[in-house]
Specification:
Two copies of one chain form a homodimer. With 508 residues, chain A is mainly alpha-helical. Chain A contains 21 helices and three strands. Chain A folds into two domains: 151 residues, no CATH class; 333 residues, Neurolysin, domain 3 (Orthogonal Bundle), CATH 1.10.1370.30. In chain A, strand 2 and strand 3 form a beta hairpin.
C-alpha cells in the first residue's frame, strides 16, 4: 500500500499538474511585469499589455475549467481524514476556496473589469499630473459599478465590502477589522496632536544632504545581505515604485528607489521589500507551483515588510550595528553622528499629505481615511463627485492638514483606478501584526533584539521561517495569528509599541 | 460592401485572434529566455525551464487545434484571388505551411524531443568542460534517433536532411545549397592556404591591448545608434553568448559580450546583433502577432547581421567615420592608429579551431564541415563514435589544423545537443546573401558606401527596410532573393568580394 495514498493517486496528480500550469502562467506574467517596471524600452508597452492579458486570461481559463472543480470536489472528500495542515488537505481547501471565488465571476465581468481598470489607470495618471479629478471621476464611477457587481457575484453576508476584502485577506470581514481600527484611531489621533505640539523635539536634518547614488545602492545591498536575503535566489533592481515579486521558486526579486538627497528612502524601501522577499524566500519548494506557494494574505505579507522596515530598521539596536557601515560609505555626511542622533532622525513623525511618505504614527490614519471613503463609495452613500471634499475634510480631522491639491490628495494612489478596493486595510493590518508577531518572537526568544545590535538576524529570521513563512498559504490570516500568538489579532501590542517609542522620542 | 471583404470576415478575424494568442505565448517565452540569459539569479533556473516548457506546450496546443486548420483551409480558398503578397494571402499561406508542419508531428514526439534535448544540453555542457566526448555520445545518438523520426514524420522527397533544413529555411533543399557550397569550398580552401603562406602581412596587435569595459560599452552604443538601431524600441545588455530577440512589437533587444583585452569583440558582436535587430525593428506593426511578423528565414536574418558586421563594419569606409570615435574613447590605445592600420587589423585572417572566432574567409569552411558531418550522422552512414576523428580529419583538410582537443573541436557548439540539425547552413547562406543583397543595393543606390564614410547609414538602411525588412516572412528566402536581386541565390558576388578584399590585404 502506498505511504501517501492521496498524494500518489492519479486524481491528486492530475490536480497538481493543472495547478502547476496555472501557476506557471501566473509567474510568467510576473516576469513580464517585473521587466515592464525595470528594463522594458518604452516601445514595448503596447505589446506587453497584450501579452500579460493573454497570460492572465489563459491562467483563469485553465483554473476555472470544470475539470478542476470536479477533481477538487472529489478530493475534498478524500482529504477529510488527513491532518488540517497536511499538504494535501491544505491544498484542496485553499484551491477549492479560490476555485469557487473564480467561478462565481463570469468571464464577461472579468474582461470588463480588465478593460475598465486599464482605461482608468491611464485616466488616473493623466488626471494626477493635470491635477484634474473631474476627468478621472467617470472612470472611477465605472470601476465602482463593476466592483458592486463583482461583490454581488462573489456574495457576502453583511457588507459588499466583505466580498472584496476577502480577495486580499481570506476570511476577514469588516466586522473583524473595524473594531480594531477604531481602537487604533482613537489612540492615534491624540498621539499625532501631542507630537505636533512638540514637533521641534526631533531633528532629521542629518538625512537631508546629498548622498551618492552608487553608495546608497551599496548600502541597501549590505542591509539586505545582513538580514538574510539570498541573492543567489533573487536580485535587487531600481524602479519608480518599489515592489517585490516572485518569478518562480528560487527567484524572488525586489526593487528600490533612490533619493539623492536622503539615503533613508532607499534603505527603508529596500528593507521593506526585503521583508516581503524574506517571506517569499521562506516558502518551501514543496508548495511551489500550487496555490499554497504564496503568503497567507496581503496583511500577513505586510507584517513582514513592516517588521523589518520599522520594528527592526528603525530600532536603536539596528543602528548600533548599522551606523558604522553607513558611516564607512558616507564619512562626510554621517561621520560625526551617533546612534542616538540617527535613531531620532529616522523616527521623526510629522503629519503629511502623502501616505507613502508617512511615518509610523501617522501612516494608519491615511489608511482609515481610505477605508471609510471606499466603503461609502461602494455602497453609493458617497457620490464620486463629493469625494475630493470628503477626503480633504477627513484629512483635516485626522491629521490636521489639508492637501495642497487633489494630485497630493485624493489622486495620490493608483489603487482605486486599478479596481483595488479592499486593499488598503491590509497595510494597517500589516502594521498591527508586525508588532504582535515580534512581541511573540521576543517572548519565545528573548535574545532576538540584542542579537540585532550585533548584526545577527538569524534568531529572528529563523523564528519567522518556522512559525510563519514555511506554511505558505495553508492557513487563513486569522488561523495563522492564532497559531503563532495563541490569540486573535490584537492592536494592543502595536499601540503599546508606538506609545512607548514616541513618548520617549518626544518627551510626552 | 466591405473594402476588405476577407480581412473583415468573421473567420479571418477569428484566425487572427487565435494566431495572436499563439504569438503572445511565444513572445512571453522570449521574455523569459531573455531574462534567463541576462538577469535571472541562479536559483531561478529550475522553475524557469518549467515555465518556458509550459508556454511552449500551450502555444503548440493552441496553434495545432483543429479549429486553426479548419479556418486556414476555408480561408485558403477565399484568398486565392488576392495578390500573392497581400497581407491576407501571405498570412494564410505562411500559417498553413506552419500548421501542416506542426500537425505532422505527434505531441508525443514533441515531448520526447524536448526532454531528450534538455538532457543532452546538460550532458553536452558537462562533456565539454570535461573534454569527454564519450559521455555525450549516447545523448547525441538519442537526439539523432528522434530527429530521424521527426524527418520521417515531416516528410521529404530526396533526403531526410531536407525536412529539418526546411524548419530554418522554408522551401530550401540540400539540392539548392550543396552546389553553392561546393563552389565556395573549392575557392576558399586555396584562398585560406594562400593567406596562410603570407600570414605575416597583416598585424592586429593593435586590438590586443587592455580596453576599459565601460568605454567599450559606450563604443558599442555609439555604433548601434549610428547604424539606426532604435533604443526607444529596444535595449542592449550583456550575456555570455550574444543574441537578438523580439519580446513584442516595439521591443527588439540584443546582447553583447566584452573582452577586456580586445575591443573589437564587443564592437562586432554588437554590430552583428544590431544587424539582426534592425531587421526585426523594420518589420511593420501590421504583421505583429501573426506568423508574418518574423524574418523570412534564418539565412535571411544572418544576411543582415553579416552585412552590418562584415560588409559595413569591416570596411575602410566605416572606419573613416568610426576611428575618430574609437580614438576619443581610447586615446592611449588607438590615438596613433590610422584608418589603414585598423582596417587591416580587423580583417586579419587566420585558421582557428573555433567557429565563433573565425574570420570572413575561414568561417564558411567551419560550416561546410558541420553540414557534411550532420548529413552523414542523420542517415547513419557516420557512427557517433567515429565523429571526433571525422571532425578532426575534415578540419585538417579544410583549414590545415587539428583542434587541440574535443572541447575545442567536435564539442564546441551547443546546436546538436539542442537537436538543431539543419541550422548551420543558414550561417553560410547568410554570408552569401549579405553580399548579394549589398551589391544589389549599391547598383540601385551607388552612394551607399561613400555615405557610410560620412556616418550616414540611412541610405543603406532605408533600402533594406523597403526591399527586405518590411515583408516580414511573406516570402520564402528563394522568393525574396529573386524579388530583391532579380536572380536566384548566387555565390559569385560573395566570392568576388572575398577574393578582391583578401588579395589586396595579403598581396596575393
Amino acid at each position: 500500500m502506498s505511504r501517501h495514498p492521496v498524494r500518489d493517486s492519479s486524481e491528486f496528480k492530475e490536480l497538481l499538474e493543472r495547478l502547476a500550469v496555472v501557476d506557471d502562467l501566473a509567474r510568467a506574467a510576473a516576469v513580464l511585469r517585473w521587466d515592464m517596471e525595470t528594463y522594458m524600452p518604452p516601445g514595448g508597452a503596447g505589446s506587453r499589455s497584450q501579452q500579460v492579458g493573454t497570460l492572465r486570461r489563459l491562467s483563469h481559463q485553465h483554473f476555472t475549467d470544470p475539470r478542476t472543480g470536479e477533481l477538487l470536489h472529489r478530493l475534498a472528500g478524500v482529504v477529510q481524514d488527513l491532518p488540517y495542515d497536511s499538504f494535501e488537505a491544505s491544498l484542496v481547501r485553499r484551491a477549492l476556496r479560490d476555485y469557487e471565488r473564480a467561478t462565481r465571476v463570469p468571464a464577461r465581468l472579468v474582461g470588463e473589469l480588465g478593460e475598465a481598470t486599464a482605461l482608468a489607470s491611464h485616466a488616473w495618471a493623466r488626471a494626477r499630473s493635470a491635477n484634474d479629478f473631474a476627468s478621472f471621476a467617470p472612470y472611477l464611477e465605472r470601476n465602482l459599478a463593476l466592483l458592486r457587481e463583482l461583490a454581488d457575484r462573489l456574495g457576502y453576508e453583511q457588507h459588499p465590502y466583505d466580498a472584496l476584502l476577502d480577495e486580499y485577506e481570506p476570511g476577514m470581514r469588516l466586522s473583524d477589522i473595524e473594531p480594531l481600527f477604531e481602537k487604533l484611531r482613537d489612540a492615534l489621533v491624540p498621539l499625532v496632536q501631542a507630537i505636533s505640539r512638540r514637533a521641534g523635539m526631533v531633528d532629521d536634518s542629518l538625512l537631508h544632504q546629498p548622498y551618492d547614488e552608487q553608495r546608497q545602492w551599496q548600502l541597501t545591498l549590505e542591509a539586505l545581505k545582513a538580514i538574510g536575503y539570498d541573492f543567489e535566489r533573487g536580485r535587487q533592481d531600481r524602479s519608480a515604485h518599489p515592489f517585490t515579486t516572485t518569478l518562480g521558486f528560487g527567484d524572488v526579486r525586489l526593487t528600490t528607489r533612490i533619493d539623492p538627497q536622503d539615503f533613508s528612502s532607499a534603505l527603508f524601501s529596500s528593507m521593506h521589500e526585503g521583508g516581503h522577499a524574506l517571506y517569499e524566500q521562506g516558502i518551501p519548494e514543496e508548495l511551489a507551483r500550487t496555490p499554497l506557494g504564496d503568503a497567507a494574505s496581503l496583511g500577513t505579507h505586510e507584517s513582514q515588510s513592516r517588521l523589518w522596515e520599522n520594528v527592526i530598521g528603525r530600532s536603536r539596536e539596528f543602528w548600533r550595528f548599522f551606523l558604522p557601515k553607513a558611516q564607512a560609505l558616507f564619512p562626510d555626511q554621517l561621520g560625526k553622528a551617533d546612534v542616538e542622533t540617527i535613531y531620532r532622525a529616522v523616527n521623526r513623525s510629522r503629519p503629511g499629505e502623502v501616505r507613502t511618505e508617512a511615518d509610523e504614527v501617522t501612516y494608519n490614519l491615511h489608511i482609515f481615511l481610505r477605508l471609510e471613503l471606499e466603503k461609502e463609495l461602494l455602497t453609493g452613500r458617497l457620490a464620486v463627485k463629493e469625494l475630493p471634499e470628503a477626503w480633504n475634510a477627513k484629512m483635516e480631522s485626522y491629521l490636521g492638514i489639508r492637501p495642497r491639491d487633489d494630485a497630493h490628495g485624493v489622486l495620490q494612489d493608483i489603487h482605486w483606478s486599478q479596481g483595488m478596493i479592499g486593499y488598503f486595510p491590509t497595510y494597517a493590518l500589516g502594521n498591527v501584526l508586525s508588532v504582535q508577531f515580534f512581541d511573540q518572537a521576543r517572548s519565545e526568544r528573548p535574545e532576538i533584539l540584542e542579537a540585532v545590535a550585533h548584526g545577527e538576524f538569524q534568531p529572528l529570521l529563523s523564528w519567522l521561517r518556522e512559525r510563519i513563512h514555511r506554511h505558505g498559504s495553508k492557513f487563513t490570516p486569522k488561523e495563522l495569528v492564532e497559531r503563532v500568538t495563541g490569540s486573535p489579532i490584537r492592536v494592543e501590542p502595536y499601540l503599546a509599541y508606538l506609545q512607548r517609542k514616541y513618548a520617549e522620542l518626544y518627551g510626552l
